[in-house]
Amino acid sequence: MAYILNIDTALKKASVSVSLKGKIISVACNDTTLDHAAFLHTAIDKVLQQAALSIKEIQAVSVVYGPGSYTGLRIGMASAKGLCFALQVPLIGIGTLALMAASMIRVLPESQQEYLLFPMIDARRMEVFTAGYNQKLEEIMPARALILDNHSFLDLPQNSTPVFFGDGAQKWEPICTVSNALFTELSPLQNDLAEMSYKKFLSGNFTELAYSEPLYVKSFYTK
Asked: What is the model's pTM?
């Protein structure tokens, strides 16, 4: 059985879970903003105990590699790589923005117009980390650091509904001039992370352990 340890320390709230066949069997969450270093290793022990597993039964480790908090990404990636080296198991990398998009498309109502998904992570002042995805979760705009103003996103197709979400969208909404824009809340990501990790595990889509690095987008972002 493919037990996967999932680590997400990319955003303000962190989670660690053990999943089996894409379903979470134990989870620990940290609601203390960015206090991820103190949380992580205790959480790993906790979820293993809850699942009645030894660390040696873990068959892969997945980690959310960014963008996000510089410190959080570094902590998560270092821990995940260390476990993979010690256990001799593969590393699965999940992009933060792709994960957010996968979570959002699952809950959006049916529409005659195509949704275009724009997850946003707060990057201080009027800047966000963002990317664009269509309904098939194909990337239509690569991950970037974007300074928002009232001219942003005005070149989108007229027959689509752009959806903005994530903590960065909160500062975009008051100045947004896209007439049909939809702003909505993002659900917790743990279940979608487990599902995405399992799909990559089945397909053998692993990250090269020796060369894997966080995706910072902007190297000086340290929030």
From this structure: 0.94
